[in-house]
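> tool_call: predict_assembly(chains=two)
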Amino acid sequence: MRLLLVEDDLSIQRFVERALLEAGYRVDATADAKSAEALALERVHDAFIVDLGLPDMDGLDLIARCRAQGNAAPVLILSARRSVDERVKGLEQGGDDYLTKPFALAELLARIRNLLRRSSASQKEPSRLEVADLQVDLIGREAKRGDRVLQLTPQEFSLLEYLCRNVGRVVTRTMILDHVWHMQFDPATNVVDVHIYRLRSKVDGDGCKPLIHTIRGVGYLLKYA
Amino acid sequence: MPENSRTTAAWRIALWTTLAFSVGTFVAFFIVYLLMAREFRARSDAWLTGEAQVLAQIAQHTPRDGLYDQIVEEVAELAMQEVPDERGSEGQRLNYVFFLRANPSGNGDILFVGPGSRDAFWRAIQRAHFVVGIPQSIRVEGWQPDFRVVVQAHEGGNPTYLGLSERGARHVLHTLMERFLWGWTGTVFLGFLISYLSTRRTLRRVERITETVARIGSEELDERLPEPAGSDEISRLAKTFNHMLERIQASVKQLRSVTDAVAHDLKSPVTSIRGTLESALSAENVEPWRDSVAQAIEGLDRMSALLNTTLDVAEAKAGALPMKRAAVDLPAAVTQLLHLYMPAMADRCHEVRTDLQSGVIVEADLGLINRSLSNLLENELVHLPPGCQIDIRLRSHQGYAELVIEDNGPGFPPEIGSRAFERFVKGMHSPGHGLGLAFVDAVAQAHGGTVKISDHPGGGATVSLLLPVNKMTLPAAVLKASVCS
């Protein structure tokens, strides 16, 4: 998977590039629209990550030009402009997703994965998810740890489902709030954490090997280590 | 008078008004002058024509005998006496009249009564072309100004000329013109002076306003212009300026308090992040780094949340919140949000009781409503001591959806007073930034609603949020805040 990263702030460009490389992508990074356009013509990219405030051109114009040249790669827009209007405009003018600065790397990676999955041939929706001895039946909406059936509330089930779908990857509180409760805001209190603690006590209780891990400062991670 | 008085508006205004005044009065006088001149001429012409007719008739009816010439001459002499007499300043006669009766048959037989020599008049008459009965101006050598002359000729008779010099009329008009010019010059000068002085006086007041306003820098917003008692334009200008200064001072003050608060709220996380990272750097082992970095990220997240909220509240207060309105099922939205908050409430041992009237639909932006409601619920989480009771009621009432959140906690801290909805106003012991209720208030107002807070006599706080209900409720279009299943 090759990504094109267009970001004029070099410190941001460096850490995003490093994170993408560590996640196993190949990355072409550039700081201006002109060279980005040249790179896009030269190589095939699976997705673009474009900052809106570029020195030589507006990011939206760059996207429009690439689209005009028949380039259909999905685009993730990065921007410090945070108003809803800007977001809507970005998505209307050819962007596929929008992430405002500052952002958590975990969220950036999740959004890239989402874009790549969306653009590749639609995957078959699984009917059950399994992590070690945890089984999540998406149709029966029932979860089991080993032979033990977990007594989960509907929200706890959705939360577990979201963590399982992102097995091995860190998800932030905002991502959880967005995907499980369909709300977009940063809670100032520990409302999300309380749900995680409750879910963890049910999933990882009774001396089982813990699956749900807290990554301090970032969010949560479900993995079998 | 200042040195550069010619560049002042007072000078220019005085100059232009004087110019307009002088040209106007001059044109008006000139028209009067022309009308008078015409009137004078009409008067003398009428006299001439009448007199000439009389003379001609007498001449015709007088028998042509030896006495003929003598009689005519005497009649003419008598007529001369009737001339509209006007005399000059030294009493000398101004108007002259001549009478001339030609005899076409013989040059020598010309009857002339008048001043000076007969020949000069005869030559002048011969040069001119007369129409009978219509007065005409002719120039006679040695005489100034022209004579008005009329000719009368009866059948078979000789043409009779009667002439009148216009000196009298000319003299009157000339005197009039002279006096007017003197008066006019004086008036124009006086007008200029008055106009200049009064304009300068008025504009001095404007100048004083300019000086004061120029003196008022961003630091000296306390100064005000003196407000004259009257209500003329300049007093109103001063009052308007003072009003504007007051508003500027208020917003500058507000801006300062907001920036102070933001700076204060940003400085503490920056300090703690810096300290955490510095101590991590000086630690020997790698393991404490992880903890410090995590702490730093948490601090940064709090900072960015504060920035976002500050900007959101600023946008909301300015009425610039972009809203995507749709029909929102308010009880469903509240229930959905309570699903999120209930475990945290239970952790704090709060008992939450709900009484939500179903089917209350508001036309609103669901995202903003969710954030407002979550602000209210987070206030309950943060400020209540453990083990409180929270009642949440929703009613549709007189066109409004009324959401009441009532608790039996300590109530609002007294220092908040009536300023609970202002930015960065919070209780002394509050860990927040004082933006939550400000945001709720701004969102409520943006939706045409209101939010009110009150304390119970027996302790506890009440927040009630009023939002106008959707008049055209279409059940099919209702966006159910999907309850997680």
